[in-house]
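task queued by scheduler; priority normal; single chain, no ligands, no partner chains; default sampling; output format set to C-alpha cells
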Amino acid sequence: MIKNKFSQNFKQKTGNLKIEVLAVWFAYRDSRTPWYAKVWLALVAGYAFSPIDLIPDFIPILGYLDDFILLPLGVLLAIKLVPKEVMDESRIKAKDWIDQRRQKPKNFTVTILIVLIWILILIIIIRYVLKAFVFGKRNPKTYQ
C-alpha cells in the first residue's frame, strides 16, 4: 500500500517536472520574459534537454544528483523569475506539447559545453597526476 502510493506520487512529481521543464523552455522563447530570466531559463532548459548529463548517471549516487536535486531547483528558481501570466501560458503550451506526444527539444549547444567541461576536468586531473607522480619524483640534488 505504502509502496503503491510512493510510486504514484513519484510518477506524478516526475510528470509535473516534465511539464515544468517544457514550460521553462516556452517561457524562454516568450518576448515578455525579462532578459535576466532568459539567461537562467536558457541554462536550465538547455541542460534539461541536453542529450548528456554533467554528472553521468552511472556514477553511484552523484549520477542522479542533477536529475533529482539540481534540475528541480533550477526549474524552481526559473519559475520565480518569470512573470506569472507568462508561466501559466507556458504550462498550457507544455501540456499541449506532451498531449500531442511530440519529442522533447534537443540542445546541442549545452552538450558541447558539457563535453568541454569534462575535457577541462580531465586535463586538470592529468596535470595533477603528472605533477604528483611523474615530475614530483625528481631527485632534489639535480636542481643544486
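post-processing summary
- The chain has one domain: 2-109.
- The radius of gyration is 21 Å.
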